Amino acid sequence: MINLNKHIQLETITAKKHSRLVSLIKRIYPPVYKHLWKNEDCNFYINTFYSVENLKLELSDTNAEYYFINYNSKTSGIVRIKYNETFSKEPNTPALYINRIYLGKEAQGKGVAKQVFNWIEKSAVKHNTKLLWLKVMNTQNQALNFYKKQDFRICGTTALTFDLLHEDLRGMYLMSKEL
User: Fold this and answer.
1) I need a surface site. Which of 34, 79, 102, 104 has the fewest CB within 10 A?
2) Do residues 138 and 170 make contact, with C-beta atoms less than 8 angstroms apart?
3) pLDDT confidence band for 95 (50 / 70 / 90)
């Protein structure tokens, strides 16, 4: 357990905690993202990226760390980071990829994400990383505004290719921050 402060802890996700991870994602992902999916059915995403097989694959990556975010003793989100993950816009710069971060409503607007990002930055510096980067849906204004407040800048675009996503809602921004 990593204590960020008396209210926020990062707890390592393991394969034994798979059912807890799936329950959390089923609670926090659909309210924010179901509009992106045809028929508002995001089961493809949940069943693919949170399957036990995919979790084991992600946990086998020695350059990655995957945590539950606990806020006031309640599991309220997840964060997954990947060290040494090259950013296409700056391929010669040591980079850390913020692969996934989700927070439930109970932890939003309370400084939780800011504390997690502060921890990510400190961890990146310890690993001699010079750049943080992430992808964000271009329609997620709350997330975009948060990342901009953390000094991330938009530096490119990409798109998801899942057929089950509405075609006009597949766009993503690439964002980065120099350390």
Assistant:
1) 34
2) no
3) very high
What is the number of domains present in the chain?
1
Q: What's the whole-number mean pLDDT along residues 21-31?
A: 97
The average pLDDT across 77-106 equals 96
CA distances from 61 to 19, 56, 83, 96, 104 (A): 20, 9, 10, 14, 26
- Both structure tokens of 142: 């709350």
What's the predicted TM-score (pTM) here? 0.95
CATH number for position 14: 3.40.630.30
Q: What is the four-CA torsion angle of 12, 17, 23, 26, rounded to 10 degrees?
A: 60
Neighbours of 76 (CB within 10 A): 23
Whether residue 171 contacts residue 157, with contact meaning beta carbons closer than 8 Å, is answered with yes
As a whole number of angstroms, the distance between CA 173 and CA 150 comes to: 15
- Return the C-alpha torsion angle 27, 28, 32, 33, nearest 10: -80
Q: Which two tokens stand for residue 114?
A: 């800011």
